[in-house]
Amino acid sequence: MKKIGIVLRYELKEYLESKGFVAFTIVLALVGAALLFLPRFIDMSDFTGVQVIGGKQQGDGQGESGEAGQTGEKELYLYYDQAGVVREELLGQIFYGTDWRQAESREALTAAVEAQEAEAGFVVTGPVEYEYYVFNKSMSDSNTAMFDQAMKLFYRMDYCAANNIDLNEITAMYDVPITVSERILNKDSGSNYWYCYFLVIIVFMLIIMYGQMIAVAVTNEKSNRAIEVLVTSTTPNSLLFGKVIAGAISGLVQTGLVMGAVLISYQVNREQWGGMLDMFLHIPGDVLLSFAFFGLGGYLFYGFLYGAMGALVSKTEDVSKSSGGLQVVIMVVYFFSLLQLMNIDGPVIKVLSFLPVSSYSTMFARIAMGTVAPWEVVVSFLILAASIVGTGVLGARLYRMGTLRYGNPIKLSTALKDLKKSE
């Protein structure tokens, strides 16, 4: 343990005193915090629905803020009414922030849209028929959906007028307000989905980034023959355990500082954002705690394997080849985990939450979104902890065997056969 502590302190010092590591962490934390403070200094009411004036918030669409929103430049829309059913005053209410004008003809409307003098144009050819003209249709274009509603309203108004029917009475019957009181007795999967998605991506990136760093560090020591000096003063087991644990601690420090800055900044400015980022950043404490434990466990599990893969090659350019199979496993688990978030109580994700290769992401997702018994969390973590120990022992043996072997990369299957022969 003493030798592991020496290696751990040295490796941890290398991480924490690295200017690149410190600068990257500080920049990420500051940028994340600064972005979340923007609504306090910039009017983002069009995006957040909350306008901040003099440090106080106001809802948009009401009073002065609503009037201010209407004083801006409006988009011009044209219509040509062949059927005589359009009521221009209603179009302005349905299409908020637009200026409507009647075109003299279909050709004039088409020419204006083609010259981009008007945003879009509508030619109403019948009581329930129209043509839509637009120069470039964006993916978020909802003009036809809104004009459909306008046409339906015009038709109802004309029908009720022709048949002496009170439209307001019919509308009140069809649009009767429904009052619902929702009581969620366990978890709101829809609201929790996005921050689980976000956390799965974070832990995946940590494993890939820091795992690759461990593998490259081990290979560098072999390529410059530093490993020959290191193994004379300590053991390969101490080297691998020290490197992996140091990487885990530095990863936790970096992730904790960045996530802490972002989450705290959002809590301070949550009202200014109108709560619109709750789906990403309003994360319960039990989910964060399970994320820390299972994420750390997943990192250690794969970190030992990455260290062993780095010891099987002598050149840094061969690291990706050696760890390719391991990265495939991580990628498959990553995509399966994301896909199964839509079926959080399904049998597939339940199985994945007990497997050490995937429990680091699927178990905390089940805690956040589904139904999970306390014994399941304990059993899953014990399996993961036992797998970490087993992987650490196996990784240390592969590391010890491969550290002083040079030349062509050693295949994992060959290394495992050699280990079996040496027993």
Number of helices, counting only DSSP H or I runs of 4 residues or more:
19
Low-confidence runs of at least 5 consecutive residues = 59-71
Helix content: 55-70%
Instruction: Give the class from helix and strand content and strand pairing.
Output: alpha/beta
- Write the element-wise H/E pattern from the N-terminal end onward: HHHEEHEHEHEEHHHHHHHHHHHHH
Share of β-strand residues? 5-15%
N-C termini distance = 24 Å
Order of the strands making up the biggest sheet: 4-3-5-6
Q: From the alpha carbons, calculate the radius of gyration and give it in angstroms.
A: 31 Å
According to DSSP, the number of beta strands is 6
Overall mean pLDDT: 81
Shape: elongated
Q: Strand count, sense and closure of the main sheet?
A: 4 strands, mixed
What would you say this structure looks like, in words?
The strands form 2 sheets. A 4-stranded mixed beta sheet has the order 4-3-5-6, with helices on both faces. The chain has 423 residues and is an alpha/beta fold. It starts with a helix and ends with a helix. Strand 3, helix 5 (88-94) and strand 4 (98-102) form a beta-alpha-beta unit. The longest helix has 35 residues, at 189-223. The chain is elongated, with a radius of gyration of 31 Å. 65% of the residues lie in helices and 8% in strands. The protein has helices at residues 2-16, 19-37, 45-48, 63-70, 88-94, 106-114, 143-162, 167-174, 189-223, 226-233, 236-268, 278-281, 285-311, 319-322, 324-340, 347-352, 359-369, 374-402, 412-422, and strands spanning 50-53, 56-59, 75-81, 98-102, 120-126, 129-134.
